[in-house]
Records
---
Amino acid sequence: MDTRTPQAQARQRRIVVASTFIGAIIEWYDFYIFGVISALFLNKLFFPSFDSTTGTLLGFMTFATAWVVRPLGGIIAGHIGDRVGRKTTLLWSFIIMGGATTLIGLLPTYETAGIIGAILLLLLRVIQGLSVGAEYGGAIVTVVEHADKAKRGFFGSLPQCGSFLGLLLGNATFLAIINMDQSSLMSWGWRIPFLLSSLMLVVGILIRTKVMESPDFQKAKDSGQIEGMPLATVVKQHPRQLMAIMFAQAAPNTFFYACAVAMVSYAVTKLGISQSKMLIAVCLGAFAEMCMIPLFGTLTDRISRRKVFVGGLLVMAVMAFPFFTALEAKAYGSLLVCYVVMLGLGHAACHASQAALFSEMFPTNVRYTGLSVGYQASGAIFGGPLPIIATVLIAMHGGGIWLFYGYTMLIALISIIAIMAGRSHQGLMSRAPA
């Protein structure tokens, strides 16, 4: 039982929200700037000996590497988080994640170190992936477990807003440097976004040291309900929930990275749309999503979280056709509208509801592990490889995007079926959103 005064509980809740908010900012800032780098610069910086298409694919493969190891990060951190506590993993995942990003900004390129630069880049990308795999589950579980039961949808959505502020900061950074002369941009300008993350890292560490253990975990620990092997328990006792998260998150991953990375690369390299225009389009969609997430989070405290999530999937599926049509026609005004609706309504509804919805699928003693493994496995399968999948499908279609469009429709259907088949664990819930 939480014996703290209501004032102390409210103060700790604010600290937890601020901590997870900053963590989400730096997580998505890190991953987004790397996504843009891989789409626009990485082939020239680290793989210049290959042709443009092969170099771009190698850059996207490096981008995908972190996603591949994220489930391992989730397993390791989930094991520690469900046995030792959320606080420890929340602090160290953040330190490692920000440190790896800063070091990427200090790497030697192919021009100065040859293949060694690419190897170091891959190594830091692996470290980044492990730490991010630990970060998301810890942040979501911690903020949901600290929240009032009647407001877990709203509080769980707040770190998700941080995600898109991170995306906006990443985009704004690139917009600020994109007009540098090409020589300066390729020699040192590309390093600026990575080095700036060190500032957020310092602020985040100062806040995270003040985070207390979550009341739910402390109660489980005091009552002796700690699992010796959380992953084994999840696999044996909660396989349906694990698979539901893995495949339900497939469409949000697919549509977001299509909008923010793969189609940015396609528009710039194949259609000749300027980098700044595409970055502005992504910024506009991200700003709309950041504003809408708390509203959808609040909505999930009043109606079924699952219905809000499915609604978001349907919006993204319906908007995919006008999005690809506007892109192929280079109709920039229509494309901006599509970005706003796709991200600001469709993806926002999914992103806002998933924190509480996915957390509610597992009991306290395996919640960190279950949520992390399901979510990160989905990213490894559907998120990280998405730019590669898009590049290959576009090449198979002779430069057209409609084969890739068919792929997005298939993924949307899979996600709808998966989330409808998932079940919630009642222990976390003040009410039972169906």
Note: The domain at 6-428 is CATH 1.20.1250.20 (Growth Hormone; Chain: A;).
---
Amino acid sequence: MSAPLQHAPRPRHRESRELETVLVTVPKRSRWRRNLAQPRSFASRIVLTLVLIVFGLLFLYPFVWLIAASLKPRGEVFDNALFPKTIVFENYVEVWNQLPLMSWLWNSVAIAVLAATAVAVSSSVVAFGFAYFKFPGRGLLFGLVLATMMLPGAVTMIPIYLIWKETGLLGTWVPLWGMNLFGSAFYIFLQRQFFLGLPRELFEAARLDGASYWGLFWRIAMPLSIPSFVIVFLFEFQASWNNLYAALIYLNAGSIDDFTAPLGIAYAMTKYSPTAGGHGDYQYVMVASLIVTLPMLILFAFGQRYFIEGVATQGRKG
């Protein structure tokens, strides 16, 4: 019997060229990418590390100064020393007797949670409408929404105040979070960009199964947009927590116990001022400021994973 036919081998010089291409070009690409991502020398890494340390210390200096000032007696609060000559731990005990700090903290937490929840939900609903529905003039309407961000707050301050005055809600919490029920242009933009990155086939399949439009938003879009929802919540919680001017405008007519933490600290600065008859006990103001700062640090520490993930997934589509 004749031997079975065998295929002729491919020319070895062609295989050698292909193998050489794989072995040469791929490492070059990898080295090129590594050079872009990492400093080229040990000295440059040392310089980069030193620069980061310097800027880190600059950002930490005010916080360290605040801690030192909160531990000083009355006459040493503003001596700019980072290590107190006399440490007075009693400041952290006496501040609760000097100021209604617990009421201020509770008011700030409640208002910030209401404001953040209201704006996150309302902005998500509007953003989903812009991302999912296709209708004539959608781009123009979305542009008008974004154009509202160019209006300075000073322009709308008086009209909004007159609206709340007509409703009879001045001196209550409602003006501090009620406006968030209508969404925010910036948060609508962020949420819309995230919703545009979701596969449209998911919503089309759900529609074929009989899901309503609200079901598309609540059962599909919202569970998939948790990172962006959390980032909006964190942004607004921080903004509401530090909002002094709104509390000064709408709560100034109320009692001291109804103040938020920023407004209460501003009140304490006036209370202890020697020009207002005080004795200059600013150490209690420093303690209150430090206690008010800690919730923000804790919040961003626990929400850091969602914070990074939410920022990284924005802007994937436009």
Note: Residues 1-11, 18-33 have pLDDT under 50 and may be disordered.
---
Amino acid sequence: MTFISLVIVLLLVQWWGSGKPLHRDQWFFNGWQRLPHANPRVARGPWLCVLAVAVPVVLLAALVIYIALCASELWLLLINIPVLLYSLGRGDYAGALQSYTEAAHAGDSVKASSVLDTMNLDPDLRGSRNSGDWTALNREALRVFTYRGFERMFAVIFWFLLAGAPGALAYRLTVLLWGHLLDVNDSRAGQVGRFLTIIEWPAARLLGLSWALVGHFECCMVRWRHLWLSLRTLTPVFLVSVLVGAMGEESDWSKSGDARRFQPAARIEPSYSLHLVESAASMFSRALLLWVFAAAVVTLMV
């Protein structure tokens, strides 16, 4: 049922786009607001964040286990589909990417910056840029769109395939909570962000391997091998590095340590950096096809 649920959800996403009709998060934020009143002793502690995510996930897991043991698998399908659709990322990724590239081709840096601010989850990184430097703007766009492409779909699919609907829901709620804490400047945002980096670690590394298989293998794997073990490397930094490697951008790594000495070949900027942004979507599409194919093979073998 896991593979069937995934295929149905991907078809629905092609039809109506990222499950937007199910993206209603107010129930979660209402519960978050009530938790301090329910347990004043942990009102400002990190355990409140764990509780906010754990309660709905544990309830869903209990329902899934009950259905698996006592009911038809059809009911499990009816749970997996809406939960997976809900767990997909928010916002119109394809529309935002198109808006940015159109603004870049038109030289409209104000519109391009506005699109990046909308897509950027971290408010501290919004608006703090030189909008006249298109090369820097395109490189930031690559970071923003690469991470958003990962968190909206690939991390969700990874945890769904690994832990079912509860895994996908747990990831999405963690991202929602992290974004909310950043917006209100809560001190716990850093702790949730570090935890998010840990749970994104395996999905990001697997996606990096996928890009190596569907893109330039050698350039991608050089970057992947030097970064894959590092938990200090933030997910967007890792993803951008391996993605540009998969698109053929070479790098030179120091033999004396972990420091990277990047020596780019002569390229015309900002056209080259914009080309990287425009090519990111096709790399995501190739990796998605690879994941679906692998999931189908595993399903047939089990």
Note: The mean pLDDT is 87.
---
Amino acid sequence: MTRSVRDAALMMSAMAIPDLRDPFCVQEEPRDWRAGIEDGVAGLRVAVVRRLGYAPPIDAEGEAAVLAAARVLSEHGAIVEDADPELPDTRHIFGRVWGVALARLVNTMAPEKRALLDKGLEEVAEREGGMSAIDFLGAEAMRTEAAHAMARFHLKYDLVLCPTTPTAAFDADAPTIKPTEALWRDWAPWTFAFNLTRQPAITVPFGLDEEGMPRGVQLAAAQLRDDLCFRAARVLERAVAVPVARPEAQGNGASCANHHHH
């Protein structure tokens, strides 16, 4: 969403403030999330996670990127080890919780807007929209269980390090084939668990693949510890200067290279 980690922290500072229209939002004073962002990771405990209640797919390059990121964090003083948070199978929870919310959105949309929807979204809404209230509450209870498992895990580990996606970036406008399966297989198998558990997570570009497409790694922290995500992401960003994809498409030739210090 931004070209640098510091800009992500700035955006968060502008957006993360309490709002009367949301009774569930965090009621805390606005803060500048850039404060402490250069504090590094010395002494932080980092878990390299390969299972989220199931084994999400990852290609060899993605595995290599995670190991390289683990090495960078460890060279900067973090204590890095492999660990499994022992979650329930998060696929079963997410499809239901997200599908029902999506069905409600689709059903309340003006017909002319509905025509513009990605067919995949309509398909998921159609598939999950008829769920009984009891089944939906069952999925919500499992979501709480997953959040509890992660909260316990974070008593031991400050951060989780894992892939962002199973492959490098693919074309933004590529059509979605079999949307429900694509969620677990292509787009979100590494990211949706943290949506479910309401944890802060950040993804940082960490090199390009052979086709010049960006490859990311993901960091997640316990609820309300966005500051740790920013600090660790900043360490990774400084270690690996990723060129802007297709600089000619950036207009005035602005690049984020000036944010990287070696």
Note: The chain has one domain: 5-243+252-259.
